[in-house]
Design goal:
Layout lengths: L1 H21 L4 E2 L4 E9 L3 E10 L4 E8 L11 E4 L6 E9 L5 H7 L4 E8 L4 E11 L5 E4 L2 E4 L4 E3 L12 E8 L5 E9 L2 E11 L5 E12 L5 E10 L27 E6 L2 E6 L3 E3 L3 E14 L1 E7 L14 E3 L1 E9 L12 E8 L5 E9 L6 E9 L3 E14 L2 E12 L5 E8 L3 E7 L4 E4 L2 E8 L3 E12 L1
Parallel strand pairs: 1-4, 2-16, 14-24, 21-29
Antiparallel strand pairs: 2-3, 3-13, 4-12, 5-13, 6-12, 7-8, 7-11, 8-9, 9-10, 14-15, 15-20, 16-18, 16-19, 17-18, 21-23, 22-27, 23-26, 24-25, 27-28, 28-33, 29-32, 30-33, 31-32
């Protein structure tokens, strides 16, 4: 309780000093805002456009612009008068970020005298001591009556707030103003500490043939400012930024409930996509906010089982008698208007669910998609199949020359499911290769990959055998 009372005293002293300063230095706060626009990028970056009605004395005057983000990038600040552009200019700008706290207050008073209120509530008495603060390094050290005290109980009272300590980040401008009426100042700047990402939920039907999908935007604000009743825009795309060393401490750098209609309007913007929220919203500091992005039903999809081999086996003897290969499970669908989608999908995580026999929705996997334009195919890895196995064995190996080899392989695919399954098998080749024989048809996917697509009846196995000549 004593500590809280002491901090309260310091705050009262500070506010009174600010009030005195406010009589001579004009200041504008968030209460003067007439409009606030927030544009959020994928890359921990926000563009703030803050418009305020401000009365400024004529001549060269200092103006304090408070309630800005604590992670503001001062070099990006741009200010202009919307109603009197020719009568207002900024001659100098300072960014003050040495924020007030208990440690900094004590640091400023090292070597100076302060007062300590020593209160004994049991004996109902109070005495005030004068002490010199000798050190504030990992605890306070005082000189009181020519004696050294390592710490001392009681409420510490400071006579005033030291210079250059402020309660919150502030832009201070030296302005040249010739207008007699209030300005509508528009101040824009970039800030770190604010980002957004997309999250999607897909619910598969019982046959894994179609799905419902909802998309959500998650906005995280740790920029150090609250944006009330703001116009919100989201930019999807990779915006190039110049990396530069941070100096002088200026920068500090699951499932969703079903929602109503989508609230964002999407449009192309330069080489990116912009998503404009069709209403205003408040984004509080240290807040995570989620807003519905899209809802779609009856999306047609395809489930794929896929086995991927390992490159580099064809120029040497296998180190194991047989190699077990995982069988990946993928969900594939078209992002097209014909498939009830067709909206550019921002990068994000897709989580998939499916109802069990009791009707309860169960989580079955997740994958991350990159920014996906309309009419492109989305491919999601859900997990690995439990009831389909793949085992690969080298059945023959022959060295033809020092750089030419022949090897023969057998892949056994087993289906323990209750239904037939088609499994894709991707086999990577070396630099120079030629398939000499194969008991199954295959297609050349690219210069170094072949693919087998094999239909396996339930509770059966299929053996793929091929011989390949390869060289270095």
């Amino acid at each position: 309780m004593k500590t809280r009372y002491g901090i309260l005293c310091l705050i009262i002293l500070f506010l009174s000093s600010v009030a005195e300063a406010g009589e001579t230095v004009p200041a504008t706060t968030a209460d003067d805002q007439t409009n606030i626009e927030v544009t959020v990028y994928n890359s921990n970056l926000g563009l703030i456009k803050d418009t305020r009605k401000v009365t400024i004395p004529r001549g060269e005057v200092e103006l304090r612009f408070t309630d800005v983000a604590s992670q503001i990038m001062p070099v990006t600040v741009h200010v202009k008068s919307l109603n009197y552009p020719g009568k207002f200019s900024v001659l100098e700008q300072n960014y003050e970020y040495d924020l007030i706290n208990e440690k900094k207050l004590f640091d400023k008073y090292v070597g100076k005298k302060i007062k300590i209120i020593d209160e004994n509530k049991f004996q109902d008495r109070k005495k005030i001591l004068e002490a010199t603060l000798l050190s504030n390094n990992q605890g306070q050290i005082y000189r009181i009556n020519d004696e050294i005290y390592l710490g001392y109980p009681g409420i510490k009272v400071l006579p005033e707030i030291p210079e250059n300590l402020i309660a919150k980040p502030t832009l201070t401008w030296l302005c040249d103003n010739s207008a007699t009426r209030p300005h509508r100042l528009e101040v824009s700047y970039l800030t770190g500490g604010i980002t957004w990402e997309a999250d999607y939920v897909m619910t598969l039907d019982k046959n894994d043939k179609s799905s419902d999908m909802s998309g959500w935007v998650t906005i995280g604000n740790k920029s150090g400012a609250t944006y009330r009743n703001a116009t919100l825009k989201l930019i999807a795309g990779s915006v190039h930024r110049v990396e530069k060393q941070l100096r002088d401490g200026i920068y500090q750098m699951e499932r969703m409930a079903k929602s109503g209609a989508p609230q964002f309007k999407e449009q192309s913007f330069f080489e990116y996509h912009i998503y404009d929220l069709q209403r205003r919203t408040t984004i509080k500091d240290q807040q995570t906010k989620q807003i519905n992005l899209l809802d779609a039903t009856g999306i047609t999809l395809q489930k794929e089982f896929l086995v991927r081999g390992t490159r580099g086996w064809y120029t040497g003897r296998a180190t194991e008698e047989s190699i077990k290969l995982p069988v990946g499970v993928y969900i594939i669908f078209a992002n097209s208007s014909e498939n009830r989608l067709g909206m550019p999908l921002p990068e994000g995580t897709v989580r998939l669910y499916k109802a069990d026999s009791g009707g309860g929705q169960q989580f079955i996997g997740e994958d991350r998609i990159r920014h996906t334009p309309k009419d492109e195919t989305v491919r999601l890895k859900v997990g690995e199949a439990f009831d389909i196995t793949a085992e690969k064995t080298q059945t023959d190996f022959k060295r033809i020359t020092s750089k030419l080899y022949e090897s023969e392989w057998e892949i056994v695919l087993r289906n323990h499911r209750k239904e037939d399954a088609t499994v894709g098998l991707l086999e990577p080749m070396t630099q120079n290769w030629e398939i000499l024989s194969s008991n199954h048809s295959f297609k050349k996917v690219d210069a170094f990959t072949i693919r087998f697509d094999v239909k396996i009846p339930k509770d059966k196995e299929i053996k793929i055998r091929y011989r390949v000549r390869s060289g270095l």
